[in-house]
Design brief:
Layout: H1 6-19, H2 35-52, E1 66-68, E2 77-79, H3 81-89, H4 93-103, E3 110-116, E4 120-125, H5 127-140, E5 155-158, H6 170-188, E6 193-199, H7 204-220, H8 236-248, H9 256-260, H10 272-314, E7 321-324, H11 325-330, H12 333-343, E8 347-350, E9 353-356, E10 367-370, H13 378-392, E11 396-402, H14 408-418, E12 426-431, E13 434-438, E14 441-442, H15 455-462, H16 464-472, E15 480-483, H17 484-488, H18 495-515, H19 522-527, H20 535-556, H21 560-580, H22 588-612
Parallel strand pairs: 5-6, 5-11, 6-7, 11-12, 13-15
Antiparallel strand pairs: 1-2, 2-4, 3-4, 8-9, 9-10, 13-14
Helix pairs in contact: 2-4, 3-4, 5-20, 5-22, 6-16, 6-20, 7-8, 7-10, 8-10, 12-13, 15-16, 18-21, 18-22, 20-21, 20-22, 21-22
The chain binds one RNA strand through helix 3, helix 7, strand 10, helix 18 and helix 21.
Length: about 625
RNA sequence: GCCUCGGUAGCUCAGGGGAUAGAGCAGCCGCCUCCUAAGCGGCAGGUCGCAGGUUCGAAUCCUGCCCGGGGCACCA
């Protein structure tokens, strides 16, 4: 197949775009595209030609699916479009494949195209392309694999959003690691990403926190008070109480008698514990007054949020905004959202409460938005926050929930409909649970037993790198067995160390080079890149070239584990090559070509690990 | 009961319409005078839970069943 400059096909593309609305042209120049996207476009254009010339009579050409082949015999990429389209246009698949092939624009990235099996189009990457991969990587550096910002729709990603009533535990850790990695991946794939943590700083659980803190505060002050069974029992409550004492001295002190007098019995049966703690909250409000209560409440909130934030920061998990639920009330956003539902006729009153007609919008039951007691529900805040998000973000509002929250999906979609918004702009990713193992034995997660439960303890035990990687190495959609022993192991069976070791080895090659007084000459390496003809080298080249589409794919499928797997594979290919051949050879062409490939591999490992929040050490 | 995620090698998991189903670990056998053996190579290992269906083609989609995780608040 003769080669033509790729600009030619861009021109073709532009002309075609005018000729046929069915053909859409991506705004990304071909050299920045992943190979997969590039081939997709070649096929799309061929279909466009066939359609324009009346050879194919179709309304809308389907978007071609291009996949990497499993076996080398089938080239590098395969497209099955002819198999799917054959029946629609009444031709046999192989014949159709031949037609498509005949109209494929030339590309220097494609060596040849075969028609195989029942009608697959098999694309073989050109040697030119494979060589250019190394050059591109070394030139783009940290930007290799990054699509231009804004080339995909904007995403507002909300994740973690754990209640600030206690420290993060290992379950939150998975959502945090997954969310942070996904945010980076989406951003690399060209989405503009806003990361948000929704702080539930309003409602009964927060009141219980405030009261728990206050009671511990009284205890520290020397009062004798019974602690409610439904309060927060963790030791961290004492820490907060100490801080409250430091700030407010004895100003919030009342006698144990005054606190306890006339409260319903704290009993497990018949909701006694609930009634007890509610009464306790009321009592705190009375005794402390609005200001005193608020002092206690806000200290508890502030300290807890600061702790969570510090924890996440230490884990490399960051947010652009910490969105306050209370803020929704204060700003009037909540009222506005309810009015919007009201205006659409989606609210009604029953039993003294205000209900949202979720059932008519796809949920399985109606939801209360304002309780009989006049307080709005958590769901009402959710609706208000949703509205706010959809107004602030032109694209997708992406939620990362623990799997136990899956029931929220239909009600939030219903809310979107009720607000008059398109529910397809919401995307929900459910993160399944992680179970910790120490070797073969399951780690019990009870707070009581003192075995570890917090994210911080996990990070301290296995380190941030292992924790970040382990959390995302399985599909988020899948239960995760997290083996602490494996995570700490410094051997090849531990995938994090295996990958990091590959990176460290690469750095060590360059250190060794310097020690021997030699220099890496990029230019010689580039012009000699054709000397990389060994099987291991060819395989590495192919994998390196695949990186951008791995990122693309991981973003589309919201699957960080695809990147984790890829890096593991890439590291494996490097180790195999390393063991199989020497880099610091006499021949200056071969040496520099190999050093270029080595440097490129290091760069891709670094970029990929960076997206996962894992460090790429120079030595280990 | 309803909703949801799953059942793929001894174990942990990829693959989620396509061409001979893949890794790692565990098992067995090999590889350091040489840039990190914290590594590499080889062998062995599978009725893709079961039964139907759709399709030119099903581990993959649909239905039913069996087995497991999780969820179904005027809680947050």
């Amino acid at each position: 197949m003769p080669t033509r400059l790729s600009t030619a096909f861009v021109d073709n593309a532009a002309r075609l775009a005018e000729a046929s609305a069915a053909v859409t042209i991506a705004p990304v120049p071909p050299d920045c595209q992943s190979m997969r996207a590039h081939i997709k476009e070649l096929v799309t254009q061929a279909l466009g030609y066939l359609k324009r010339d009346g050879v194919l009579v179709i309304d809308q050409a389907p978007e071609p699916e291009v996949e990497r082949t499993r076996s080398r015999e089938h080239g590098d990429y395969a497209c099955n479009i002819a198999l799917g389209l054959a029946r629609v246009v009444g031709k046999n698949p192989r014949e159709l494949a031949e037609l498509i092939r005949s109209r494929l624009p030339d590309s220097r990235r494609v060596e040849k195209v075969d028609i195989a099996g029942p009608g697959f189009l098999n694309f073989f990457a050109s040697p030119h392309y494979l060589r250019v991969v190394v050059r591109d990587i070394l030139r783009a550096g940290d930007d290799y694999g990054r699509a231009p910002e804004g080339s995909r729709d904007d995403v507002l990603l909300e994740y973690v959003s754990a209640n600030p009533t206690g420290p993060l535990h290992v379950g939150h850790g998975r959502g945090a690691a997954y969310g942070a990695s996904l945010a980076s991946i989406l951003s690399a794939a060209g989405h503009r990403v806003q990361r948000e943590y929704y702080v539930n700083d309003y409602g009964r659980q927060m009141d219980i926190l405030a009261v728990s803190v206050w009671l511990r505060y009284l205890e520290l002050a020397g009062e004798r008070v019974a602690f409610p069974s439904n309060g927060y029992h963790g030791d961290y409550i004492y820490d907060i109480a100490r801080e409250v004492r430091r700030r407010h001295g004895d100003h919030l002190r009342h006698t144990g008698m005054d606190v306890a007098e006339g409260l319903p019995v704290d009993a497990d049966r018949d909701g006694g514990a609930e009634a007890h703690i509610d009464a306790l909250i009321e009592r705190a409000r009375q005794l402390l007054g609005e200001q005193g209560y608020e002092a206690c409440f806000s200290a508890a909130l502030e300290i807890m949020v600061a702790d969570i934030r510090d924890d996440l920061d230490g884990f490399g998990v960051v947010f652009d905004r910490w969105f306050s639920e209370r803020g929704l009330q204060q700003s009037g956003a909540l009222d506005r959202a309810l009015k919007r539902l009201e205006a659409g006729g989606w609210l009604y009153r029953k039993d003294g409460a205000t209900w949202f007609k979720a059932t008519e919008l796809g949920d399985d039951k109606d939801r209360v938005v304002v309780r009989e007691n006049g307080r709005s529900t958590y769901f009402a805040s959710d609706v208000a926050y949703l509205l706010d998000k959809l107004e602030r973000c032109s694209g997708t509002s992406l939620y990362i929930f623990g799997a136990d929250h899956h029931g929220y999906v239909p009600r939030l979609k219903a809310a979107a409909r009720g607000l008059g918004e398109n529910p397809d702009r919401l995307d929900f990713q459910l993160v399944q649970f992680a179970v910790l193992y120490r070797g073969q034995t399951k780690v019990q997660m009870s707070t009581r037993s003192g075995s570890f439960v917090t994210l911080r303890e996990l990070r301290e035990e296995v380190g941030n790198d292992a924790a970040r990687y382990f959390y995302v190495m399985r599909s988020h959609d899948q239960h995760l067995d997290f083996d602490l022993e494996l995570a700490k192991s410094r051997a090849s069976e531990n995938p994090v160390y295996y990958i990091q070791y590959a990176h460290a080895r690469i750095a060590s090659v360059f250190r060794k080079l310097e020690e021997t007084g030699q220099r890496h000459n990029l230019a010689i390496g580039e012009s000699s890149i054709h000397r990389l003809d060994g099987d291991h080298e060819q395989e590495l080249l192919r994998s390196l070239g695949r990186y951008p589409e791995v990122v693309e794919n991981a973003a589309e499928r919201r699957s960080a584990h695809l990147l984790a797997h890829y890096l593991y594979e890439l590291a494996g290919q490097f180790h195999a090559w390393y063991n199989n051949s020497h880099f610091l050879v006499e021949d200056e062409e071969v040496r520099n070509a190999r050093l270029n490939l080595t440097a490129a591999t290091g760069q891709v490992l670094r970029n990929g690990l960076g997206l996962l929040g894992v460090s790429a050490p120079e030595e280990m």
